UniProtKB/TrEMBL annotation:
Positions that bind substrate: 7, 65, 141-144, 174-176, 196-197
InterPro entries per record: Aldolase_TIM, Ribul_P_3_epim, Ribul_P_3_epim-like, RibuloseP-bd_barrel
Family membership noted in the UniProt record: Belongs to the ribulose-phosphate 3-epimerase family.
Alphabetized GO MF terms: D-ribulose-phosphate 3-epimerase activity; metal ion binding
Record text on cofactor binding: Binds 1 divalent metal cation per subunit.
Superkingdom of the source species: Bacteria
Species whose genome carries this gene: Salmonirosea aquatica
Cofactor: Zn(2+); a divalent metal cation; Fe(2+); Mn(2+)
Ligand binding (a divalent metal cation): 32, 34, 65, 174
The protein's enzyme class: isomerase
Protein name: Ribulose-phosphate 3-epimerase
Length: 216
């Protein structure tokens, strides 16, 4: 049974408290918070104040995904804003090991995200230091994109690396996740699914989350 982390990027920002309370009632395990700076990715989402606002109403841990340049400047701020998981991008961190250690020192779980073109093999030397690897299955920056089929191969390879290294981290998939690709993703080795548009644009988000949660 996978962990489910609905992305509030797809929520109704004018009714954010309502949507967060809906997620509280759901079978979701986390709330995924996408932070975008308009530089690392070609879009701007929201920052610490919105993260804090979500955290005030959330009864599930916040899974914060920093799609920003120089994330080290803001790790403490997002931890104070309620982040339980802080995921940074491999492509944005020249001193990744130091960044990961800092996240852990702050009391959060460190995650590392990979863009679609970035090979999983580049994480070989840090696998035992991280709690989560987030594989982007779309190009980051916008919701509602089409799932990239090469993701399955990357998940299988990463799961193999996990077995061989004896590391203990979650494999999270973000982008274009739905009820059709969820089963093969789990079969390939994924543990955690992020879903935004598929949840919030469905007629019954609670039922949609339940369907994802009970995927085998």
């Amino acid at each position: 049974m996978p962990l489910i982390s609905p992305s509030i990027l797809a929520a109704d920002f004018a009714n954010l408290q309502r949507d967060v309370e809906m997620l509280n009632r759901s079978e979701a395990d986390y709330m995924h918070v996408d932070i975008m700076d308009g530089m690392f990715v070609p879009n701007i989402s929201f920052g610490m104040p919105v993260c804090q606002a979500v955290n005030r109403h959330a009864q599930k841990p916040l899974d914060v995904h920093l799609m920003i340049v120089d994330p080290d400047r803001y790790l403490k701020d997002f931890r104070q804003a309620g982040a339980e998981i802080i995921t940074v991008h491999y492509e944005a961190c020249p001193h990744l090991h130091r960044t990961v250690q800092h996240i852990r020192e702050l009391g959060a779980q460190p995650g590392v995200a990979l863009n679609p073109h970035t090979p999983v093999e580049l994480l070989t030397d840090i696998l035992t230091d991280i709690s989560l690897v987030l594989i982007m299955s779309v190009n980051p920056g916008f919701g509602g994109q089409t799932f990239i089929e090469n993701t399955y191969r990357k998940v299988r390879k990463l799961a193999e690396m996990r077995r061989e290294s004896g590391a203990d981290f979650l494999i999270e998939i973000d982008g274009g996740v739905n009820s059709e690709n969820a089963p093969p993703l789990l079969k390939a080795g994924a543990d955690m699914l992020v879903a935004g548009s598929f949840v919030f644009k469905s007629p019954d988000p609670l039922q949609t989350i339940s369907i994802l949660k009970n995927t085998e």
